[in-house]
Amino acid sequence: MNQISGKDGFSRQVFGDDMRRQFAVCYPEKSQILDHNMAANELLTLESLAKLGSALPEASVEYNPGDLPVGIDPADVPDNGMSIADTILMIENSASWAVLKNIEQVPEYEALLLSLLAEIKPILESKTGKMLRPQGFIFVSSPNAMTPYHFDPEHNILLQLRGEKTMTVFPAGDERFAPPSAHESYHTGGPRNLVWQESFAKQGQACHLTPGKAIFVPVMAPHFVQNGPVPSVSLSITWRSDWSFAEADAHAFNYMLRGWGLNPGAPGRFPEQNKAKALSWRILRKLHLVK
Known about the structure:
Order of helices and strands: EEHEHEHEHEEEEHEEEEHH
Largest sheet: 7 strands, antiparallel
Number of helices: 7
Strand order of the largest sheet: 3-11-8-13-6-5-4
Structural class: alpha+beta
Helix content: 25-40%
């Protein structure tokens, strides 16, 4: 079992036995609060993250004002007028939200990501097949910052490292919260932000995260995040699977069918339900008939 050294010099598992048992029960379809033993790590201080943000390619860094509404079009999100390094170093007073994407591009952070995923890899591969495209994301948020309502295409565990936040999660695959058209648009190059309705508010699962807590979020489960009263740092470890790619390709195939004036049924949540559409889309893509 891979282990990570804490600030006290001792090595420990980040995901304990009880956590892995809970993960085995909830994966891949049910969101679940979990515990983690991620000790203080010099790679995750604000100073180190500011350096990481400056070192990453521009496309791997996103930051903007944090006082956004739950529902907002990506095109309407303004710039915060600061550099990524200053945004992170001044996060307590910059009223911003920042994400460092694909941290595995830097060797030290790749090692950190893979060591964490190795602890749960046997569980996830027994259910959704080979772990594909492991990626890491770090979120740095000012007090009370809001991450708008959206979904993500990866299997995801978010570990809270500093501060607190509340993530409100909605059921994956429920058309009330994310219609098929939103999935189809995303999987053919559109945004991941979703249209928010106030009627949704009481139907989500509000999960309060503090240091030492984590949450597993299923593929494409809609959610939004409200930061607490102090700066927050979170680490998101993600991976893809044949399971998630089959659903994505089936949505893309439906997008094409809808463009022909048809009204296709939404893909299922399991690979065997999506094989025909996924295979058809992959053949068309291989023949360069679609992008």
